[in-house]
Amino acid sequence: PWMYDVFKEENDKLWCMIERKELVFEELIKIRWNNIFKRLGIDADGPAFETYFRSRLNESAIPVDGAMEMLEALKRAGRGDCRNDAGAGNDRWVNGIGAGSGDCESSIGAGSKDSVKGTGNVIRDIGRYILAAASNGPYHQQIHRLELCGMDRYLDYVFISEKVGYSKPAKEFFEIALREINMDRAASRKNAVSELSAGSAAVRSFSPGSAAGSGLSVGNDDAGGGYITAGDCVMVGDSLTSDMAGGRNAGMYTCYYRRNRDGVITGDVDIAVDDLRDVAAAIISLDSRTL
């Protein structure tokens, strides 16, 4: 266990440096294992082990306990199975699940810090909530891990830092994600109008492009298909810095997942949960009161 503790401490230090824009990911992978081996008193080739580590990590995808149940509950709510006083038919953006511990964990409900841009993705028919993942790290790795654990089927968008061009908690990360979603929504509305003009019998339901990711946000659209703002979203994650501070600074509501159940909350959050299974109910309750 002490070896893992050293790894986590050194790894978290480097990811925090990335959040503060003191380091870029390409530099992290060059020095991470040299730092860890030095702490452990091991004489080994850090960059060579990094290559091995990343190859094994790419095939590892173990969801945090309760993550799949959370996604299923939110997707059911999106289909109208979990209605509340806010009514059905509204679109919400749920962005990022997990997030926070760097790339030592699984992409969703786990804590990776990767985020992906969702251009050119498959269109899905969703209901009330738009589910998106927000993560810092390498794009292809995170996408692959989401597919391995089966979380990709729940997600409508994935925003990963390598493709977005910014890392959480940068405000630009969240602005680009919202712009991507709203561009798809505008295009969908235009297509629906075109179909009606051509005499179509039915209006095609809007559904955003799909991708993959980590971290959670919920956006409210009472008009159904309207413009989604940061104030319509909830950022869910396990990092007080990249997720909570990032979401809050972008103007989103925040839901903090306390992994250790006794974690001290340093900063403002709107919701705090100890079990991911409680996230959906908390968001639906918040939705009925504020979104």
Question: Could you explain the architecture of this structure?
Answer:
This protein has helices spanning 2-19, 25-40, 46-57, 67-78, 139-149, 161-164, 171-197, 240-249, 279-289, and strands at 92-95, 129-135, 157-160, 233-237, 253-257, 271-273. The chain is of the alpha/beta class and 291 residues long. Strands 3-2-1-4-5-6 form a 6-stranded parallel β-sheet, with helices on both faces. Residues 81-93, 97-126 and 199-213 have low confidence and may be disordered.
Structural class: alpha/beta
Number of strands: 6
Number of continuous helical runs:
9
| Major beta-sheet overview | 6 strands, parallel
Q: Report the uncertain regions.
A: 81-93, 97-126, 199-213
Shape: globular
- Strand arrangement within the widest β-sheet reads 3-2-1-4-5-6
Q: Report the helical percentage.
A: 40-55%
Radius of gyration: 19 Å
The average pLDDT is 76
N/C terminus separation:
43 Å
Beta percentage is 5-15%
H/E element string?
HHHHEEHEHHEHEEH
